[in-house]
Every structure is written in structure tokens, then in C-alpha cells.
Specification:
The complex is a heterodimer of chains A (113) and B (801). Chain A has helices spanning 2-20, 25-46, 67-98. Chain A is mainly alpha-helical. The two termini of chain B are 62 Å apart. Classes of the chains: A mainly alpha (113), B mainly alpha (801).
């Protein structure tokens, strides 16, 4: 299972990188979204999959899934959500002000020194 | 801190009060206040002669950074004292001269004296420091104050150019010297020059010996304007003439000479030292004198003459080091070179100082220094003319002035070099006297040009802006004193030999001290009819002949291509360096985010892949893996499909919805992998995110219209495939090598017992690792505030508010 998930993570990273290298600001933000999904999945996979019950003591199981990676992922999800929403509004505002979402047009020039 | 330390630091302290004197006593020239200090210092240092004469040196140490072994250790021996007397003595004369030279109404003289005092203190520190780090500190202060003094008339472009050039070259040398000092201290485990000399027996075998020597010599050569680093000195002539007289003839340019002499006991035993120092010296001697002849500006002639004379002293120091290889102690002919070096050092300071002042007077009284405009000033300025005669004749090496004596001793030194048979010198050594003789002919020529083109010939008042007349007496005092010294040392050289030269020799070549711990130096006027005398006669004869036919052969200088000069090399080098760095920056700083991302990703791929291969870190095992279930396979397929859909989506809406599909699949994965809290959070977050995406982009009507087709780019694909592959490989390797068990068994045991909660993830979030959560909340808060501010604050829209 871990091997399958590792490949899945690789695919997510490939797609995210490809999107981040494109010109449209929207596609770059979609890329960052995919990248954070990949990172979360990687965290979960590296913690070990399917080793026991959900980490709730009420289950009274013999073995539980590792709770620590889950706590880490939860933190990461919230932070990446905060950053993504900020980034989205920034993109929205920059489109409003500058009238483009093409990264090539959003390039700094030597004239601004 | 003893009196000696305060003496070294006193110019800096005095410099602090200069602006006060300048502001408070406007009617008195500030120079008069400043003048007191170097005179007092000169008298103070003069007292040390009786000690150094008897071989007693003074050491006073004050802690500076004791934990690093860096202490301000002041050390007075013969060599240090000689320089200290030169610095304070000529310093007094120069300040006296500058009082009459610089107008207190028109010039910012408070700046001038602050810089000059700073320089004087720094120079005293250089020559009286025993600790190399302290020496380096003062060394850089001399570079800095020289920079300030050259750029004194900062509104002139040439001054700024000259200041920058000298700064770049001397600081380059200073930094390499620092590296050399550090290497030396690594070898000897001390920063003290005396202790380094104490360990000299074991040093030459050390592998750092030669690098340290080369680096230190680079520092000495750049400071002392040796070929090919001499190019800053002629441009430094943009400084006021007192500065040129003081820094660029008598003191600062001799700092390199001092360094070579000071470290001679350490390095002189190696043949590399002998070769480098004497070869660079002799080449500089020749090139300086050769180039001086074609100059038309008096100060330029003197600048190249200084270069040439410094080369001569340097060559003599190099030749003197041969004495260490020959042990005929009773009659060591190679020692003569070192005697000549020290003697000429003093002579040069006297006559060159006075010549600069003479040129300054001519400039001051006629308004020009161009020899093509000058002439016939002999009857108008008789005193200046006499001073010029004394200075130039001494410089040319004519009797009865002191330059004659040191020139004769110089010839003795180079003739002895021709007879050296160590280091296989039989063939090459013969070149030394030949080059030296030719250089002396050129020295004779330019010396005569200075005096006769300026003071004899046709008087051309129409070319002069002002009507020339004799200088005021105050301006003449300093050159008169220096010129009298030229004559005194010329007639009675032996007043120097016992008091100054012998103690200095003892510092330069302590290994060759005689039985009674001192040298016996005696300077003779008349050697008999020996080869040196005939060489001098030859110089005069050929020199006179060449001056008469100067116009005929001076076209020779035009043969040299203008483009191939060292100055062009320097200027072109600077321009090329600036251009190439600009081009390099232009090449990779394109301004496209995409290019930077490509670089970052490519670097990441290369580094990680290399490490994987080099460390043989890739492992693949199925041992740690859980079995694959059918739900996971289906979900994986869904996720892959959604991901690929994003890549190929033409419409932005499709991309956003597919991203939502990936997010919901994620939350389903969390369900399958038994993470209920994650599943919940992911579901909510994904819903809000998709809504935000739609808000931001779907509701912008313009974007809907122009749907551009996606352009496929192969490099992007390669980079992204590389990133994906690397991440997969790393994940597999990490999974294959589990070094130790998780610490989570503690959480399983303790979350109810210690924290009273059954949901382990929540207990970790708010109890065991609550700090993370606190700052995660902060992140959300900041993001919310940021978004609010971004939407509400519109300061750039013309109207503020």
C-alpha cells in the first residue's frame, strides 16, 4: 500500500510542478493546492498505513494508527488553507488592479530601480 | 597603556579636536595647532636613539583582545625608530609647509588636518606594532586616510578617480597581506612578529611558508607601488602637494619597504624571497625611471621617480638577503646592499620630500606644473632653484650630495649580485648591474629635465596665468631644512651610520650580527678608482649626451602602443568586470518567475538525485508495507484521473472542479486510513477553498471570454517528471529503511491517563503539542486580517484614503 501511495504522491508532485511552471496565475495556485495534497498524503504514508484502529481510545483495539502524523497533517491543512486563501485574494486583487493574470506580464523590469 | 601607546594614538586624539580649533579660532590657521604634535612626537622618539644604539629595544604591551592573543604591543627597535623619526620629522615639515600652501579662507582645512593626523597615527601604528593584526588594522587605516587625502578636492573628477584607484589597489594588497599574516600565525601559533622570528628555524619546511610569503609580498608590493601595481601612484598626484610629499614620497609608500624589511628575518632565508624581491625591485626601478622621462607634468615625473627609487630600495633589500646564504661573516660583501637600502631610504625621504615641496612652490607661484609652459625661472625664484638643484642632483646620484653615496653603494650591491653563485645566478645575476646602470642613466635624465626645463631656458610669461615671484619664506623653510639634510648627510654620512643605520640593520638581519652584537657600518666618500666610480662617470657622460639629443630619441616612446599600457589594462579590466557581472546577472535574473522556479526545481533534482546515487541510499522493500485493498485502488484511479484532468483542462472551471475532486478523494483516503478528524477537516477546507476559487476567478467575467489554449512545454514536463520521480524514490527509500519505532505508543498510553481525553489526535493538538495549535490559530488570524486589509486598503488609487 505504501508503494502505491508513494507513486500517487509522485504523480501529485509531477502535476503540481507542471502547473506551477505555467503562465496563468490560477493554474499556479491550483498547483500549490495539489502540492499541499501531495505533501499531506506523503506525511500520512510515511507514518505507516493501516496498522490498527482509528486513534480513538473508545475503540478498545489492540493497535491504533499512529496519531502523531495525523495531528501534524491537521495543522498543515489549516495553515495551507490560510495561506491559499490569502494567496487567492492576492491574485484576485492583483487581477483587479493590474488587469492580467499572465505571469509574463507581471514581470519586474530594470527600469524600476 | 603606557606613554608609548599614547604617543602612537595621540594623532587620532588630536584629530578629534581639529574641528574645534577650526571653528573657534577662525583667524589662526588650524595648521599651527596641529604642528605642535609631530614636533613633540619627534623629540619624544628622538630620545630612543640612545637606547637603540646600544641594542636595547623597548616593548610595551597593552591588552586589546587578550582572549585571541591580540594585544597592542608597541615595539621600538632600530627599524621602527627610523620610520617613526621619518614620519614625525617629515610630518612636522609637511604641516609647516601646508600652512603656507593651503589657504585658510578657500580650503576646508579642518578636513585636511583630520585626515593628515589620522594618517600620521596610522603610520606610526604600522611601524611600531609588534602584533600583526594590530599592524594590519593600522595598515588599512593608512589606505583609508590616503584615500581621503587623494580625494581632498572631491569636486574634481580626477581626484575621485585617483582616490578610487589607489583604494582598490592598496586594499586588494592589504587583504592579501592579512591572509598572509593569518597563515603565518597558523604556522607559528602567535601574532607577535618577534615570536615568529624566534621560530624561524622550523618555518621554511612548513607547507604554508611559500603561500604566506607570496601573500604578504603582494601586500608590500601594492603599497610600495612596485611594478605592475605602481599605476595608482601617478594618479594619486591629484592630491594636494603636501600630501604627495608626505604620503606618496616619504612615508606611506615606504610601508611596503618597512614590511619587507621587518619580515626579512623570517623569509630572507629562502631563495624565493631573494628572487621575487630583487627581481620586482629592479624591474620597478627600470620601468619607473624609463617612464618618468616622457612625462610632462612635474608631479608625474616625481611620481614615477618615486616608483623607481622604491624599486631600487626593494631590490637592495632583496640583494641583501643573499648575505644569509654566504657566511663569510668577517667580510660580508652582500650586507652592503642592506646598508645601501637603509641609507637610501633616509636619503630618498629627504630629497624627494624637498623636491615635491619645490614643485608645489612652482605650481603655487606660476599656476602650472607643465614643463612645456615653464622655463627661465632661475632669476625669478633663486632660492627655489637652489633647492631644486640640491634635490635633483642628489636624486641623480651626483657628488657631494647624499644620493651619490647611496647610488655608489647601490652599484656595489648589484655588482656583488653579479658574482653570486648561489641559486645558479652566474648567468642571470649579470643582468642586475646592467639594468641598474641603464636605470641610473634615465634617473639622471629626468632629474636634469626637472631642474633645467623649469628653471633655465626661455621665460614664457605669456603661457602663465599669474606673474611668478619668489615664494614666501614660510613655504621655503621646510624644503630648506630637507635640502640642508641632503647636504649634511652627503658630507657627514657617518652621523647616521652608528645612530640609525646600524640599529636598523640589526632589526633586518639579526642573524648576521657580529660578536659584539652590532654591525660596523662606515660610509666612505672615496673608494678609490673602482668600478662603481666608473659606472657613475658613465651615467653622467651618457646621460648628458642623451639629454642633448632628447628630441631625437624620445620618439622611441611613441613606438609603444597606447592600448597596451597597464593603466588601460586596469581601466579595461574594471569595465570588463562590471560588464561581465552585469551580463551574468542579466542571464539568470530574467524577471520571469517561471525561470526561477525551473532553477530551483532543477537544483533540487540534481542535488537529491546525486545524493541518492553517491550514498547508494535507494532501497526498495515490501516488508513494511500494508496490503493493498480494492477501495484504495479505485480511489487512487479517481484521484489520478482528476489530476490529469486538471492538467488538460481548457476551461478554468474544469480545473477548479477537478481540484475539488482531488480534495474530496483526499478526505476519502483519510477515511480509509482511519483518520476521522482529518477527513472532517479536509472536507470542510476543500469546500471553502473551492468556493473561494470560484469566487475569485469564475466571477471575473473577462477571464471567461479569453480562454487561451494550453501550450505544451517539454522542458516543464521533464522538470516536473523529475520532481515527481525524486519524491517517489525518496518516499520509497524512507519507507524501506525504518531506523526506530514511533514514539506514539506513549500517546496511546498517556492520552487518557495524563490528559483525560480519548481522541488521541485532539489531545495531541491541544494538550501534548498545544503550542503548534496556538500559532496555527495565529496564522489563520493573520491571514484573515491580511485579506481584510488587502481588500479594504486602496492607497494607490489616486485619491488617498
Amino acid at each position: 500500500m505504501e508503494i502505491l501511495m508513494s507513486i500517487m504522491v509522485g504523480i501529485l508532485f509531477t502535476a503540481a510542478t507542471y502547473l506551477m511552471l505555467s503562465k496563468s496565475l490560477l493554474r499556479i495556485i491550483v498547483g500549490t493546492g495539489l502540492l499541499s495534497h501531495g505533501a499531506h498524503l506523503l506525511l500520512l504514508t510515511m507514518g505507516g498505513l493501516k496498522t490498527g484502529a482509528a486513534p480513538l481510545l473508545g475503540e478498545k483495539a489492540a493497535a491504533y494508527t499512529d496519531p502523531l502524523p495525523q495531528a501534524l497533517i491537521l495543522t498543515a491543512i489549516v495553515i495551507s488553507f490560510g495561506v491559499t486563501s490569502f494567496f487567492l485574494v492576492l491574485a484576485y486583487r492583483s487581477y483587479q488592479e493590474l488587469g492580467t493574470d499572465n505571469m509574463d506580464n507581471l514581470r519586474g523590469t530594470d527600469r524600476h530601480e | 597603556m603606557t606613554l608609548l601607546h599614547w604617543a602612537i594614538l595621540s594623532p587620532f586624539i588630536m584629530a578629534l579636536f581639529v574641528p574645534f580649533f577650526y571653528k573657534k579660532f577662525r583667524q589662526v590657521h588650524t595648521g599651527w595647532f596641529v604642528l605642535i604634535l609631530p614636533i613633540v612626537l619627534f623629540i619624544y622618539f628622538f630620545q630612543f636613539i640612545s637606547e637603540t644604539m646600544n641594542g636595547v629595544s623597548t616593548i610595551e604591551s597593552a591588552p586589546w583582545i587578550p582572549s585571541l592573543g591580540i594585544n597592542f604591543t608597541a615595539y621600538i627597535d632600530g627599524l621602527g625608530l627610523l620610520f617613526a623619526l621619518l614620519i614625525t620629522g617629515i610630518g612636522s615639515l609637511v604641516i609647516l609647509y601646508s600652512i603656507y600652501y593651503l589657504s585658510k579662507e578657500k580650503e576646508a582645512i579642518h578636513n585636511f588636518y583630520v585626515y593628515l593626523l589620522m594618517f600620521m597615527g596610522a603610520m606610526l601604528g604600522v611601524v611600531l606594532s609588534d602584533n600583526v593584526i594590530v599592524l594590519y588594522t593600522f595598515w588599512e587605516l593608512t589606505s583609508l586616510s590616503s584615500f581621503l587625502l587623494i580625494g581632498y578636492w572631491y569636486h574634481r573628477e580626477k581626484s575621485r578617480y585617483g582616490a578610487q584607484k589607489s583604494m582598490l589597489i592598496t586594499v586588494f594588497g592589504g587583504l592579501s597581506m592579512l591572509a598572509g599574516f593569518i597563515l603565518l600565525s597558523i604556522m607559528t601559533n602567535t601574532f607577535s612578529v618577534r615570536e615568529m622570528i624566534g621560530q624561524v628555524a622550523t618555518l621554511p619546511e612548513h607547507s604554508l611558508f611559500i603561500p604566506a610569503m607570496l601573500l604578504i609580498l603582494l601586500g608590500a608590493f601594492t603599497k610600495s607601488a612596485q611594478f605592475p601595481f605602481h599605476i595608482w601612484l601617478p594618479d594619486a598626484m591629484e592630491a594636494p602637494t603636501p600630501v604627495s610629499a608626505y604620503l606618496h614620497s616619504a612615508t606611506m609608500v615606504k610601508a611596503g619597504i618597512y614590511l619587507v624589511a621587518r619580515l626579512s628575518p623570517i623569509f630572507a632565508g629562502s631563495s624565493e624571497w631573494f628572487w621575487i624581491v630583487s627581481t620586482f625591485g629592479i624591474v620597478t626601478l627600470f620601468w619607473g625611471s624609463f617612464t618618468a622621462v616622457k612625462q610632462t607634468d612635474l608631479k608625474s615625473i616625481l611620481a614615477f621617480s618615486t616608483v623607481s627609487q622604491l624599486g631600487m630600495i626593494m631590490a637592495l633589500l632583496g640583494l641583501g638577503s643573499a648575505a644569509l646564504h654566504y657566511d663569510h661573516l668577517d667580510k660580508n660583501i652582500y650586507l652592503a646592499a642592506t646598508v645601501a637600502a637603509v641609507f637610501h631610504l633616509i636619503n630618498h625621504a629627504t630629497f624627494k620630500g624637498s623636491l615635491f615641496m619645490v614643485v608645489g612652490i612652482v605650481d603655487h607661484e606660476t599656476g602650472t606644473r607643465d614643463i612645456r609652459k615653464l622655463g627661465g625661472l632661475m632669476t625669478i625664484m633663486p632660492i627655489t632653484f637652489t633647492l631644486a638643484i640640491i634635490g635633483t642632483f642628489s636624486m641623480a646620484g651626483l657628488p657631494p650630495f647624499n644620493g651619490f653615496l647611496s647610488k655608489e653603494m647601490f652599484f656595489t650591491g648589484v655588482i656583488n649580485a653579479a658574482t653570486l653563485d648561489i641559486f645558479n645566478m652566474q648567468t642571470w645575476g649579470a643582468l642586475f648591474p646592467v639594468i641598474a646602470w641603464v636605470a641610473s642613466v634615465f634617473t639622471f635624465i629626468y632629474s636634469m629635465i626637472i631642474v633645467f626645463k623649469t628653471f633655465t631656458g626661455k621665460y614664457q610669461p605669456e603661457k602663465l596665468d599669474v606673474k611668478p615671484h619668489e615664494a614666501p619664506i614660510g613655504m621655503l623653510i621646510s624644503p630648506i631644512i630637507l635640502a640642508s639634510l641632503v647636504i649634511v648627510f652627503g658630507f657627514f654620512p657617518n652621523i647616521l651610520s652608528g645612530s640609525i643605520i646600524e640599529p636598523a640593520m640589526a632589526a633586518i638581519q639579526p642573524m648576521l650580527l657580529g660578536d659584539n652584537g652590532s654591525y660596523h657600518v662606515h660610509i666612505y666618500h672615496w673608494h678609490g678608482f673602482n668600478i662603481e666610480l666608473f659606472m657613475t662617470l658613465g651615467v653622467i657622460a651618457v646621460g648628458t649626451f642623451m639629454i642633448i639629443f632628447l628630441v631625437k630619441w624620445s620618439k622611441l616612446y611613441d613606438l609603444f602602443p597606447k592600448r597596451l599600457t597597464l593603466n588601460n589594462l586596469y581601466d579595461g579590466g574594471l569595465v570588463a568586470m562590471e560588464r561581465s557581472t552585469y551580463k551574468l546577472n542579466k542571464f539568470y535574473m530574467t524577471g520571469f518567475i517561471r525561470d526561477y522556479l525551473v532553477m530551483i526545481f532543477a537544483f533540487m533534482i540534481i542535488v537529491l538525485a546525486n545524493t541518492l546515487v553517491a550514498k547508494d541510499a535507494f532501497t526498495f522493500t515490501t516488508a513494511n508495507s500494508a496490503p493493498i485493498g480494492v477501495y484504495e485502488v479505485i480511489l487512487t484511479l479517481v484521484m489520478i484521473t482528476a489530476t490529469i484532468t486538471i492538467l488538460f483542462a481548457k476551461s478554468r472551471l474544469t480545473a477548479i472542479i477537478s481540484l475539488g475532486v482531488v480534495g474530496y478523494s483526499m478526505s476519502l483516503f483519510f477515511v480509509l486510513f482511519r483518520a476521522p478528524d482529518l477527513a472532517l477537516t479536509q472536507l470542510i477546507v476543500e469546500t471553502v477553498s473551492v468556493a473561494l476559487f470560484l469566487l475569485c476567478f469564475y466571477h471575473l467575467p473577462e477571464l471567461d471570454i479569453k480562454k487561451k489554449p494550453l501550450r505544451f512545454k517539454l522542458p516543464n514536463l521533464i522538470i516536473s517528471l523529475g520532481v515527481g520521480t525524486i519524491v517517489t524514490l525518496l518516499a520509497l527509500s524512507a519507507n524501506g529503511t525504518k531506523l526506530f519505532d514511533s514514539i506514539s505508543s506513549y500517546f496511546v498510553e498517556a492520552s487518557y491517563k495524563e490528559a483525560g481525553g480519548k481522541n488521541m489526535v485532539n489531545v495531541i493538538l491541544v494538550d501534548f503539542r498545544g503550542l503548534d495549535t496556538l500559532f496555527e490559530i495565529t496564522v489563520l488570524g493573520i491571514a484573515a486580517l491580511g485579506i481584510f486589509a488587502m481588500i479594504r486598503l486602496r492607497l494607490t488609487r489616486g485619491r488617498e484614503g
